[in-house]
């Protein structure tokens, strides 16, 4: 069995999740996730189970990759002080010298690492990687020489193939994937323990853009082998999320955040996933927990407000929304304003709600669909001119559906009905309403609402004294409704209003027989209406 240098892992299932400790940080490093690796290694540095010499190497390597050479040297020196027999820190000092353009000082450091390595091929692979990280072009020969030496020690050393895959990644993704796969196979063949999970993660990420399900399966297999790995737990949750499998992502995040090496930022992601999974109370409870630790976290303030809105606890939603909008650090999105607008409407504050929808449009002017929400808010607040203007702007953008066209006709209908008779505003509203109603009729002639809307606008135009044109529109509405017998029950109120209007029209025309026909139809739908019965029976 080889000495495990890059990532000495526990036998799968042998220890509880917390037993991984600092090794989770090493796993993140081998996958290329430097910030995550640094956080775990720093967090666990003083734990009793941490090999400080090994941890120092990875912390130094991370600092070096980030350009912090002073911290890198400090960490490598600290690692040697903790264990002078650990070869990795000499590799680190060698890479540091290379980064400073001092190859001469790098060589003895690498030589010392080799002296301590014995038959450990991974150290030679790490020296090759040091040259690669310093300058893959300038040191191409040195990289090849050290890879060759690593192969002499152990031609099946996975670290060799991971480095070669990384060299290929920028040039040929297919070749890189093949080399990662070779590393994975050799890793499992060696001792049936996965020592290089970073190769599995890199391989899965390489495939994700073209075959996400295959990538997810790879991470599932890795997690099955390393159930305590925080990286594998998190990667699976992330890949579910990126593949829009939100329910699976929420379930996996729920498991992952039980791991002591989870990140606080992922608790926030989990709060959002619980919300989208309609687990609003769980989302709310976790958001409150996070806020107790971080009171100014505006994302969590947002989630408190959204969760209470979804739970239909509107007074509470209003309270949390006020706290959220008062946070000077908050970054607002359109959904914040539209959701708050909905809450205010539920609380009967239609005018205040309108202001929220206006803000949504203001901060996201390119999101023209927000004009539909704004128009509806204006309509509910009985601000009919603004309602028509907002929806007209959306229709003019070219993105409108037939339903939007019909809604615009009805906006103009409301505007016409509430405008003073004889004014240009009323005339224009009627003209526009009829125009868009007819467009809707032409698009869906078999649906009753467009022709019904047209009929009602004509009725407004006629000042409730219908002309023959208006009557014809109502009769056409009945023809469309009658095409589906179920409408007699589903649309009974619409039938009643049309029968009553047509009955009144024919009474005024002194066509009592036709009037009685319509009133009788009305009575058939409302047989308990005794006043209507007496009226119909009295018609001669």
Describe the structure.
73% of the residues lie in helices and 0% in strands. It contains 30 helices and no strands. It is an all-alpha fold and 540 residues long. It has helices at residues 23-30, 34-43, 52-65, 69-82, 88-99, 103-117, 121-134, 140-153, 158-169, 173-191, 197-207, 212-225, 230-242, 246-256, 264-276, 280-293, 298-310, 314-325, 334-346, 350-363, 370-380, 384-396, 402-418, 424-443, 448-461, 468-482, 487-490, 492-508, 512-525, 530-537. The protein is elongated. Helix 2 packs antiparallel against helix 3 and helix 23 (402-418) packs antiparallel against helix 24 (424-443).
Which characteristics define this entry?
single chain, 540 residues, mainly alpha, 30 helices, 0% strand, disordered N terminus
Cα-atom radius of gyration: 36 Å
Number of helices: 30
Amount of helix: over 70%
Mean pLDDT over the full residue set: 92
Distance between the termini: 108 Å
Summarize the structure.
By secondary structure, the protein is mostly helical.
Write the layout of secondary structure elements.
Blueprint lengths: L22 H8 L3 H10 L8 H14 L3 H14 L5 H12 L3 H15 L3 H14 L5 H14 L4 H12 L3 H19 L5 H11 L4 H14 L4 H13 L3 H11 L7 H13 L3 H14 L4 H13 L3 H12 L8 H13 L3 H14 L6 H11 L3 H13 L5 H17 L5 H20 L4 H14 L6 H15 L4 H4 L1 H17 L3 H14 L4 H8 L3
Helix pairs in contact: 1-2, 2-3, 3-4, 3-5, 4-5, 5-6, 5-7, 6-7, 7-8, 7-9, 9-10, 10-11, 11-12, 12-13, 13-14, 14-15, 15-16, 15-17, 16-17, 17-18, 17-19, 18-19, 19-20, 20-21, 21-22, 22-23, 23-24, 23-25, 24-25, 25-26, 26-28, 28-29
